[in-house]
Amino acid sequence: MSVIGHRSVTLPGVVVVGPRTLTTMRPYIRFVEWLGGNRLMLPVVSRIQTPIDRVLMKTTRGRVRLMSGAYPTLLLTATGRKTGKSRTIPLLFVERSNGGWVVADTNYGKDERPGWCANLDANPVAKVSINGVAHEVTARTATAHECAAYWPKLDQIWPNFEKYRGRMRREPHIWILEPD
């Protein structure tokens, strides 16, 4: 249950981002972090959470999220490299102090790169939506120096990033999304 203004909203398994404090959400946060780091649950989480969050975030302008309600989440829309169609994916992010956002291509700890990376490789111009506010961006991979600076910040918002990196046989990239 969460509070939006003065109305109480109960949605099973859904966090409504509002004035709740992280202290009252601590059990939920621990559960989400366990679920996101559990190897047996990852195939289910990766197949279900992403499509549901995509729909919830689009329709509620970022206010309602299934698994990542306690975490900073943006919607990244890139052009599909094969189809030319818009492809949207919810991603955890860190805001840059000098503008823009940082995301990681950990793909839940899988060795395969996520499709959105290949789309950004082909066409780095994309759109980011945060809480319903859209921004045009240009994406690029982070330098080694930027990676060293941003991995600790990404690990702070989602501790499972470190677990994912430990499982992967590839080095995940950090992407910088710079506003146009």
Account of the protein in words:
It is a single chain. 33% of the residues lie in helices and 28% in strands. The protein is α+β, with helices and mostly antiparallel strands and 180 residues long. It has a single domain (2-179), classed as Pnp Oxidase, Chain A (Roll), CATH 2.30.110. A 7-stranded antiparallel sheet has the order 6-5-9-10-11-8-7, with helices on both faces. Strands 1-2 form a two-stranded antiparallel sheet. Strands 3-4 form a two-stranded antiparallel sheet.
Summarize the structure.
The chain is of the alpha+beta class and 180 residues long.
User: What is the chains' assembly state?
Assistant: single chain
Average of pLDDT: 81
Secondary-structure element pattern, one letter each: EEEHHEEEEEHEEHHE
The backbone outline, from C-alpha atoms, is globular
Write the layout of secondary structure elements.
Layout: E1 2-4, E2 7-9, E3 15-16, H1 26-37, H2 42-59, E4 64-65, E5 73-79, E6 86-92, E7 94-95, E8 101-104, H3 115-122, E9 125-130, E10 133-141, H4 144-157, H5 160-167, E11 174-179
Antiparallel strand pairs: 1-2, 3-4, 5-6, 5-9, 7-8, 8-11, 9-10, 10-11
List keywords for this structure.
single chain; alpha+beta; Pnp Oxidase, Chain A; 180 residues; disordered N terminus; two-stranded antiparallel ribbon; seven-stranded antiparallel β-sheet; 5 helices
